[in-house]
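[step 3/7] inverse_fold.run input=structure_tokens len=186
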């Protein structure tokens, strides 16, 4: 079971983090990205504490993937959302605002031939491309390798949902318990 927390970014504020998390978030150059990352780790820390896990045990591998010795997690944020996935097994999550028409030219670079054929027939090309992108991003996080060419050229099946102008995707495909701004949703 994957527990998925989706938060809107309208309540994001500057917060203090433990050194292990603060150092990781400092790698971002863009102020907003750094602030969103810090807040995502703050929310994750609160969820871990509530579940009896010590967030100070989080470390980061060479590629920047967060690792906890007793639980798996994945974070993502966009302009409007912060998403946290927590599971007892490896998990990956991504959120992106639905792409705009100018980005449709990326389709040939990030879709397999089979996905491109489907994309070509879709009425909602923006939604389809964003879903495939976020699934591949979540899969790369699940594997701990990020968005590599081998991940891009893989057809990935996972769990995706549209959330008010954005797509949230989780890998692997398994039951998901979801919360939106702390309220459980089905």
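[step 3/7] decode complete -> sequence:
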């Amino acid at each position: 079971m994957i527990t998925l927390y989706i938060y809107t970014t309208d309540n994001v504020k500057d917060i203090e983090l433990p050194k292990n998390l603060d150092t990781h978030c400092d790698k971002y150059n863009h102020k907003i990205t750094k602030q969103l990352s810090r807040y995502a780790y703050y929310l994750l820390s609160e969820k871990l504490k509530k579940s009896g896990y010590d967030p100070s045990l989080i470390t980061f591998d060479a590629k920047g993937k967060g690792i906890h010795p007793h639980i798996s997690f994945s974070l993502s944020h966009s302009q409007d959302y912060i998403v946290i996935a927590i599971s007892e097994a490896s998990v990956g999550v991504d959120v992106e605002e639905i792409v705009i028409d100018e980005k449709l030219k990326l389709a040939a670079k990030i879709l397999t031939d089979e996905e491109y054929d489907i994309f070509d027939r879709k009425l909602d090309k923006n939604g389809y491309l964003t879903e495939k992108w976020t699934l591949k991003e979540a899969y790369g996080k699940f594997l701990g390798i990020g968005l590599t060419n081998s991940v891009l050229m893989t057809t990935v099946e996972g769990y995706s949902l549209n959330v008010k102008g954005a797509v949230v995707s989780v890998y692997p495909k398994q039951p998901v318990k979801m919360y939106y701004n702390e309220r459980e949703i089905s």
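[step 4/7] annotate
Residues 31-50 form the longest helix (20 residues).
Residues 44 and 50 are 10 Å apart (CA to CA).
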